[in-house]
Design goal:
This protein is α/β, with parallel strands linked by helices and 188 residues long. The chain has one domain: Rossmann fold, CATH 3.40.50. Helix content is 42%, strand content 20%. It has 7 helices and 9 strands, in the order ββααββαβαβαβαββα. Helix 2 packs antiparallel against helix 3 and helix 3 packs across helix 4.
């Protein structure tokens, strides 16, 4: 049983539960490795490209001012691969490294989330309401090698960054440029 939602067929909750029950009962094989970005997002992009899945936005964001960002599954896949490469090459991060993101809910937040999944990097989200003490604690406790923020919040964070012995790179999302910070748009 399935239902139609915007022309797409989706699994009902009972189907999802029965799928997981069949895995628990060893009737279905649990994949040894699973990566949402490559196993789900890229598969949906391929199905869309082949015409076997209706074209719907994978991501649709609208700002308070009405600005829209809309990415197809193929676009989100491509952008997330570029962002994963930017994190791996530009920020010198490897699988298992930790990254703290202190960002408002901008499109790049979701893009970096998928990019981290794709690259095997652990994303630690942080709200812009964190204090300097909160950020300092999170940097030390997580041993994060990179911090990601926007140009507005970067100034407030810089006071605690020198005390982080594990931090190797700092990444700005947006148009801003700061000494010692990489810019995501330039890396992409």
């Amino acid at each position: 049983p399935s239902r139609s939602f915007h022309g797409n067929t989706r699994l009902l909750t009972s189907q999802i539960i029965s799928y997981y029950e069949s895995i628990n009962q060893c009737k279905k094989e649990l994949p040894e490795y699973f990566n949402f970005a490559s196993d789900v997002l890229d598969e949906w992009a391929r199905l869309e490209k082949d015409g076997r899945k209706a074209a719907n936005p994978a991501f649709w964001w609208v700002s308070d001012e009405g600005e829209e960002v809309k990415w197809s599954f193929e676009e989100l896949g491509s952008l997330s691969r570029k962002a994963a490469n930017a994190l791996s090459e530009g920020c010198a991060l490897q699988r298992g490294d930790r990254v703290i993101a202190v960002l408002p809910r901008v499109p790049e937040w979701w893009l970096l989330s998928v990019a981290c999944m794709r690259a095997g990097i652990v994303l630690i989200p942080g709200t812009s309401q964190l204090t300097a003490k909160d950020i300092s604690y999170r940097l030390q406790a997580s041993k994060a090698k990179c911090i990601i923020t926007n140009d507005t919040l970067a100034a407030a964070l810089e006071s605690v960054l020198p005390s982080s012995q594990f931090l190797k790179s700092k990444l700005i999302v947006g148009r801003g440029i700061r000494d010692g910070w990489l810019n995501l748009k330039e890396l992409l």
